[in-house]
Fold this sequence. Notes:
Elements: H1 2-13, H2 16-34, H3 37-49, H4 56-72, H5 75-80, H6 82-94, E1 97-101, E2 111-112, E3 117-122, E4 125-128, E5 137-144, E6 147-152, H7 164-177, E7 182-183, H8 189-198
Antiparallel strand pairs: 1-6, 2-7, 3-4, 3-5, 5-6
Amino acid sequence: MVIWASYVASLFLRTQKVRAQISGAMVSRFREQSRDPEFIRNFQYELLKSGELVFADDLRKEFEQLRGYMEESPSFYHVSGLQRHTESLGRALAAKTWHVLQPPPGKFFILSDCPVTTVEISGGHATPGPGFGKENSAILLPLTPEYLFLASHSAISWRAIGTPVAVDATNLLTVRFAYKRVYSHLNSPEIKALVDAEINQITFGKDAFVPADQK
């Protein structure tokens, strides 16, 4: 269970879309935070509470160096936090109830280059991109055209065989999360039209995974 949770979390975090969008947004946010004198003082105080005394000027120089690394290569932030973020998302995933669902006859699931998607189910509405940790988040990963992995709150029930409407909604979510590529085992005009109209409509940091203080 731990291995699978880590795999799904890593599969999400290692995508090109996450590196390009989330890492860039976090670098920009860190740039603003670290230039605030209060940020340095608060960080110095937290170190002092743990018994470590560091001069503010030394901290400022370290943050300037770190900021330079991050601005030169946004993936620096991504790679440096990859293990920590994978563990965090893996724990959130492991706390949910897991299912494997199938489509009805004549329907199938599609995949993308950003294959792990999330949707918040509340009050009869489905909102994409809430993140792994929210209570009502459902985390989806199409495995093959015939099977879909899904993790959600234990109070939410799912049909082992999804309805045609549910499969269409899942495929729409997959396309909107996709970055540049969508994969289908069939050369379907309907899927092509869906991709042309909807691909990459979800932007991380804007439409999905937005920090609480920015909503």
